[in-house]
Amino acid sequence: MITLQSAENALKTVYLGAVTELLNTKSNPLLARIEQTTADVWGKEIKTAARAGIVGGIGAGDETGELPKAAASKYVQFTATLKNLYGQIEISDKAIRASAGGKGAFTDILNAELEGLLSASKFNLGRMLYGDGSGELTRISDTVGGFNYADDPQNLIEGMVVDIYCGNELIMAGAVVKHVMRETDYIKLQAPEGHSVDEIPTDSSLFVQGSRGKEITGLGALFDSAKPLYGNNRSDVPFLAPYRQAIPAGKLDEIVLQKAMDSVERHAGVPINFIAVSAEAKYAYQEYMAQYKRNIDMMELDGGYKTMSYNGIPLVYDRFIKKGVLYLLDTGAFKMHQLCDWRYLENENGKILRQTQGRPTYTATLVKYCDLVCNRPNGQAMLTGVLRDNLS
Known about the structure:
about 25% helix; alpha+beta
């Protein structure tokens, strides 16, 4: 017979491992390539060192002369705060009682919840990987007839609950994204009770509810030269600056890609092993290859992802990369530092299922305390302006 206790046991012993595996390896192709580690976690912070240059105690000399003097490598300390990631599984009391006579029916319920959690996680973890840690989803630049124009609608999806800020002022909390018109970039928001979408001023920003300034440090932060780098002023560590290049019109070709890759290898001594592109950059690359009647190679990555490749390097499209952007990455330099892997929140009695206040449902909350750190920022590159109109 299925009871709350047996449901808890199933979630802990059977489903936790599967959920963890899916969240870490199936949510996003880039995330699947990044090592998950508990190293360098100190309390609520991550403290790790990035090496600058090489050991200096090397040289040539006379047969009987003095040996080179030792000179240790220079290190820069990176400090990041562990971010709090949450995922919720909800089961209704009615569903539990309806499946009390059979394990199969209950398994179907948990599988459905797992699929829902994975779907939401794919969206939000992928979005955060390419974000800047601020949690900003998009900016509103116009309001017409109850619809709002969004600068980056790819970060939005129906059902998302958002907070709206104008500068540092919270304008509205708990608005719901009802529709995303992806062809026109207009969105329809449902304001919480007592508010109207007409109250939303121009140049407002949308954030996932409660997440402003609390998301993991994604690639957007790594390439943002205006912000500190893991607690260091950029001017203090210029040798760790990633490569960034705007593509001149009509110059999208293999030479541009190879130039960026060669620059990274000269400065950091590491090869590029992952290319991530926006939709526009993907189309531009496909059209460039088509111009010269060349086939595009395909490959399959760990986790079952099938993608294009460039000279044996996976070239992966991701919906959350900003328009016209192409990243060339050394994924071995990235680590997801975590206090622990995904775990359930438990009460003092070790229970993970809690009744939702005022509702006939039970929820279990998964949590992970982590942040993404790149210990070789100069081993990464970003090309901008990669558009279909800029073909050679």
